[in-house]
Design brief:
Belongs to the mitochondrial carrier (TC 2.A.29) family. There is one protein chain. Helix 1 (2-29) packs across helix 3 (66-89) and helix 7 crosses helix 9. By secondary structure, the chain is an all-alpha fold. The protein is built from nine helices and two strands. A hairpin with a 2-residue loop joins strand 1 and strand 2. It has one domain (1-297): Mitochondrial carrier fold.
Length: 298
């Protein structure tokens, strides 16, 4: 039940934040491996990107990749948050009755690795679909998938089973770092808010406040890994399924840093917060409330 509740909470958040995921993906691919000023800027900032995509691709364009997004959230975060909930309920994250920063970080990272490996094929497809756009505002490599099933079948047919896990070398550090930052900060922030007695112990505002604190830390820690992950997943491949732009995580990280500087690794930071911030807050809030609700009626 921990896995089901966690997946349901993440899907609830995804319904609200998927348009921002589309914006974030486009901004991270814009000007890929090009120096500032040498490429056309289609998306000036998160608000302009939102408007441009809605105007050119239509409102449906802002919900591209929603189906794989929901599947990804259910399976990846179901496994990730569900694993963490089991670790937490077993008492592992506490030392002498208090939340341990080291233990929550390790538990969050381990749960993130498991979730990332499980969800990688769906994330691959989601990235391809979200980057697809009208040629006048296209950024990054453009795949021609007609939907999630068509994309999975095409990748499997052309590149085999391993092709479905292409890019997972970036997904694992991305999700493990993000998960460690998110869950350790959330657990510690919840304990802090309860200690300060700002709200009643079982108030929904405790989880909401902790989620808001966690969201800032997650975005700052995760964005460079997120940029690398998006680019590895979306790069063109040869007939053997080998990436034509990057050899792997380290190669993509170093090339981006060399060509675009540190700001290249933080491309789409505003979009990342507008997407990851609300998603972190909503998913953790829904997760905490669903678990409390389940315990009351179990």
């Amino acid at each position: 039940m921990d896995f089901v509740l966690s997946g349901a909470a993440a899907c609830g958040a995804c319904l609200f934040t998927n348009p921002l995921e589309v914006v974030k993906t486009r901004m991270q691919l814009q000007g890929e491996l090009k120096s500032r000023g040498t490429y056309q800027v289609y998306y000036r900032n998160v608000f302009h990107a939102f408007y441009t995509i809605g105007k050119v691709d239509g409102l449906a364009g802002l919900q591209k990749g929603l189906v794989p997004g929901l599947f990804y959230q259910f399976f990846m975060n179901g496994v990730r948050l569900g694993s963490y909930a089991i670790i937490e309920s077993s008492g592992y994250i506490h030392t002498n009755g208090r939340v341990s920063a080291v233990k929550t970080t390790v538990a969050g990272a381990v749960a993130g690795v498991v979730g990332a490996v499980m969800g990688s094929p769906i994330y691959l497809v989601k990235t391809h679909l979200q980057s697809q756009s009208t040629s006048s505002i296209a950024v990054g490599h453009q795949y021609k998938h007609q939907g999630m099933i068509h994309a999975l079948a095409a990748i499997y047919r052309e590149q085999g089973v391993l092709g479905l896990w292409r890019g997972s070398s970036a997904a694992v550090p991305r999700v493990s770092v993000g998960s460690a930052a998110q869950l350790s900060t959330f657990s510690s922030s919840k304990e802090l808010v309860i200690d300060l007695q700002v709200f009643p112990k079982n108030s929904w505002l405790v989880a909401l406040s902790a989620g808001m604190i966690s969201s800032v830390v997650v975005v700052l820690a995760m964005t460079p890994f997120d940029v690398v992950s998006t680019r590895l997943y979306n790069q063109p491949v040869d007939h053997l399924g080998k990436g034509q732009l990057y050899k792997g995580f380290t190669d993509c990280f170093s090339k981006t840093l060399k060509k675009e500087g540190l700001t290249g690794l933080y491309k789409g930071l505003g979009a990342s917060y507008f997407r990851l911030g609300p998603h972190t807050i909503l998913s953790l809030f829904f997760w905490d409330e669903l678990r409390k609700f389940y315990k009351q009626f179990r």
